Amino acid sequence: MEQLRSVMANKPAQDELSLKTADIQLTSDWTSFGNRTYSAFRLDQSHQSNSRAFGGPSDPLDDMYGSLGMATLKVALIGEAKRDPLSQRVTIRATHAGYYIRDTYDFNGFQFLGAWTKTGVLGSIQPPLPLTSHGVIQRLGKEPVSHVFNHDFETYRRATGFGGDFIIYSDVLWEPVGMTFELDPPKRTGAIR
């Protein structure tokens, strides 16, 4: 979150907000610009200003990595906004920053998901046994161990017709902020840094 705090209203973030405010009906009076009841999904569509990817194969297999793997932390700004009637430039007075996670839950690409037993997952980075090919079960003591990869779930999906990919959003963590900035007219690139 610290990285996003420093870039939540930088030039690329302002360009992103400029695109998102282009079609909003604003006047020369301060008008509400979002509110804290908005879901992460709604914020993502209309108020998200910047993002940072996180997670990777060298992370420890904990609850966060086990549930998300690689995901994106995003920030959205809300407050008040107005549009200059002559220049059409939008000024935003941000009062709160909302942080949330957007993740795709899928089994695409190559990813080792751990060495699994009937009682749990042993690890994701350094498997306790040499990696084996698909479907081979080894033993660690008396317990059977199977190395599980994304393609194992894909195989299951094809064989059973169950399962699918979807997008998940976390709850929003709100922090008060106090910043006012003017947006340049929109550029239709959508690049965020």
Summary of the model, kept short:
The chain has 193 residues and is α+β, with helices and mostly antiparallel strands. The protein has helices spanning 2-7, 11-21, 40-46, 63-68, 150-160, and strands spanning 31-33, 48-54, 71-83, 90-105, 112-116, 137-140, 143-149, 166-169, 173-183.
Descriptive keywords:
193 residues; alpha+beta; 3-stranded antiparallel sheet; 9 strands
Characterization of the model:
The protein is of the alpha+beta class and 193 residues long. It has helices spanning 2-7, 11-21, 40-46, 63-68, 150-160, and strands spanning 31-33, 48-54, 71-83, 90-105, 112-116, 137-140, 143-149, 166-169, 173-183. The longest helix is centred in the N-terminal third of the chain and has 11 residues, at 11-21. The protein is elongated, with a radius of gyration of 22 Å. 21% of the residues lie in helices and 36% in strands. The two termini are 15 Å apart. The strands form two sheets. Strands 1, 2, 3, 4, 8 and 9 form a six-stranded antiparallel sheet that branches. Strands 5-7-6 form a three-stranded antiparallel sheet. A hairpin with a 6-residue loop joins strand 3 (71-83) and strand 4 (90-105).
* Secondary-structure element string: HHEHEHEEEEEHEE
Q: In percent, how much strand structure appears in the residues?
A: 35-45%
Gross morphology is elongated
Main sheet overview: 6 strands, antiparallel
Helix content: 10-25%
Judged by helices, strands and strand pairing, the structural class is alpha+beta
Radius of gyration: 22 Å
